[in-house]
Each structure stands twice: as C-alpha cells, then as structure tokens.
Request: fold
Amino acid sequence: EEDVSGPGWDIDVEVDSCANMPKMDMLGKCDPYFSLQMGKQQFKTTWIANAYSGKYKDQKFRFRASGQKGNLVMKAYDYNKLHTDEFIGRCQIPLATVLKSAAGAVNKIPLLTFDGQPVTGRDKQQSEVSVRFWHVTAAEVLDELPKVDAERIKTLRSQFKKLKGEPWKLHVSVKSASRVPPMDEWNGKADPFVVLYTECNTNKSDEVKTRTKSRTLNPDWNETLSVLVETSFEETDVVAVLYDSVMIPFPSRKEVGHLRLPMLSVVGNDSQDFEVAFRRPDFPEERLQDNSGYITKLKIRFKLPAFIESSTRDLMPTAPMEVSTDQLSDDLRRFMDSSKQTRLWLSTREVTADNLMTRICSSEADEKKIEAWKLDLQVAKGNLFLSSELQMLLGILATLAQIILLKMMMMGYDG
Reply:
C-alpha cells in the first residue's frame, strides 16, 4: 500500500555485493544479479560472472517514495544466455526501515525462498545481499523558476515599453546537463545537444543550439546563445529541447527530453544559475530520468538586454555578450576549412553556424567586416549542405549494401 500523506523522499539504493550464492549452473557456478522494485519503479543490476560471492560496481539506483509505507523488494536471479534466468531468492525491506537506516552504512540482508525458507549456498552458509541506503527530501527538483513579485512585474512592463513592440534578444547561458539517459546501445552513452527557441516563434531558422558533446551522459557546454523574442515577455515561454545526435543511417536528431519556462519567470530571475528538470517527450507530465532513476537536469542562466534595468533588486545592468574579434575570425576560418572537407562526421565540429551568426551580430567590429563575415558564413553553409547531401547518398549506398549482403547470405543458407 502506498502512503501519499507524508513527505516525498528520494531514496538511493546501492547494491554493494552478494555472498554465499548457491550453485546454479551445471558446468559453472552462478551468475547472480538483482532486480529492485518499489511500487511501480523497477531497476536491475548487472550480473557477476561465474561466482558464488562478489562485489557490484556502480550499481546505485534512485526511487521516489511518498510517506513511510511500502516495501523495497529485491529478487536474486541467475543469468543465463540460452534460456530463462533462474530465480534464487528474495528479500523485502519495509520503507520505514530504509528511512531509519544510517546513510551509507552496509546492511547485510538474508535471502529467502517464496515460502520463507532461507536460501543457502554451496558452502551451507545463508545467501545474502549487502546494500546501502541514502534518503533526502524530494524538494530538490525545480519544476519552474521562482515566482516574481508584483512590483518586479510592474517595473519590467515599464522597461519593455521602450521596445515599442520590436523584437528583442534574450541571452541564455547553457551551462551543463546531468544524468542524460543513454541513447547509444553499443556504448551506453549519448551525443547530446540543446536547442532553444521561444514559443511565439514559428520560424525554425530562429532556433539556436549548442555544440554536440560526443559520448557523454553529463555534458558541459558553457555556451551563451541569443534567443529571438518577437512578442511581450508575458505572452510566451522559453523552450529548451534536449536532443541526441544520430548519424547512421542518416544524419538526424532524436528528442530525449524538453522543458518549458514562462518568460515572465525567466526575465524576473536573470543573472542566476538554475537547475531545472527535463520532461519526458512521451509523457510531458513526468520528469525525465536516466536508467538508474536519477532526474535529468539542465543548468542554465538568463541575461536580459542591456537596456533593462533592475530597480527592485541590487543587480548590475546586464552587458551584451562579449565577443572577441580575433577569436571570432579564427573560429570562422576553422569553420570554413571544415565545411570544405567531405567527411561523415561533420556534426562533431566544435563551432556551429548558428553560434557564429549570433557572435557576428553581437560583434563590435565595423560594418564592412561584419558583412564580409556574413558572406563567408553563407558560403561555408552552402558547402555544408553539399556535404550533407553526400552523407545521405553514402547512407543510402551503405543500406543497399547491407540488404544485398543479407540476401546473399540467405541464398547461401538455402543452397
């Protein structure tokens, strides 16, 4: 029975080791692993190959619980490659016991059969599992930015009247993300990047994005992007979408999660770092989690245009983005060089066209220099388009080759 009357808890459970497992394999020992369940939340550990006892590495999982009712149920299985995994034993730990345990202390728990009899190993000792518990109040997750008081809203309205309905740009510093779910089956990693836009903008060309970070679940971007806003700050939201970069069979992107922040809260909480939870793309009401149950979060900061002054808080006026002319020129040159190369992994380049255009528009160089940079960038983007067309052709050819090879193998088997 689930108790929803008490406070929420995030409970970390680490499976440390197992001992005295019974012999389960005819030609070997045992390949033990554990499934863990609390309510509808389920996880399982990796297995230890051919052993009666052993330690698990980095098998830590997070459960969300309400109140103090309910149980943590752990079941031990023997892993088998050729047939169904075999049940070894189980244990049931009341949630109240978990919350009373010392944080990080090792708890040795005996395994029992379904009818309550002890499970004994080959050495006649009782089989057991060692686990550690940590628990924290679940208030650490931010669903949205703090509310803005009425005086602050009044001040913002008067400052934004200076725009007279003209579009403006919000500077967004995308710091990092943590606990991204693994998207690549072959290496258990992901190639994440973040796309930003405002809900009022229907033009895809107004999207801005970070660089792609290859093979990581905890990316650090530390990039500042400028998001175009074409309406009042009270009439739109800032949307951040977390994508995984996909290259095979065709260059594409797959949504991992997203978050939506009211512009009213964004402009009222500028110049502060926030960690905000992503939402699942298939169930937007649920927070995005990795395979261990930890919530995926984005660390982000917002900066208002320089003409907006904060009269209700002790903050310095926000400065425009700092753009080094020499660095910008060097990055543009490297981008053009890479765009001329017909290579498969163009998406891994460090500098993106969107990022360069933002920096060019924010540069304090003379107008002729800025126009020359924009022209060079358009040429480079044209080269990239041709390269992407070639990538698509190569992908099609690779797929056809796989189909032909598969048919030849099937014909060989038939013969």
